[in-house]
Amino acid sequence: MANDLTRITSRALDRREDREQSRDLRAVQRPAKRAAARIQAAAITAHTGLVSIEALTACEVAASQRQGAIVDARARMVVDAFTGLVANELALLALER
């Protein structure tokens, strides 16, 4: 009877220690997971922004070849504004904690 009680108590303590270790491990991993998510969000934003800027630049070149300087200036302003937006989003992601 005493051996059964000792085994039951020992197993209960092992489970409790396992839960505490798991909780501690999760607490340590949480900031790293958040940092990784921020880095991934910044990478996705940068990639999407650069692809879009490339497409807008191609449109700008095509428009300037077809329609002249006025459209060229307008298209350049659109590309520059979008580039600034992407840079701003990346800055906001960098400051987010």
* Structural classification: mainly alpha
Q: Share of helix among residues? A: over 70%
Provide mean pLDDT, rounded: 77
Oligomer: single chain
- Largest sheet: number of strands, sense, barrel closure: none
What is the H/E order?
HH
Distance between the termini: 55 Å
Indicate how many domains the architecture comprises: 1
Number of helices: 2
Work out the number of β strands.
Answer: 0
Q: What's the Cα radius of gyration?
A: 28 Å
Q: Are there runs of 5+ residues with pLDDT below 50, and where?
A: none
β content, as a range? under 5%
Inertia-based shape: rod-shaped
Describe it.
This protein is mainly α and 97 residues long. It has one domain (2-95). It is 96% helix and 0% strand. It is built from two helices and no strands. α1 packs antiparallel against α2 (69-95). The protein starts with a helix and ends with a helix.
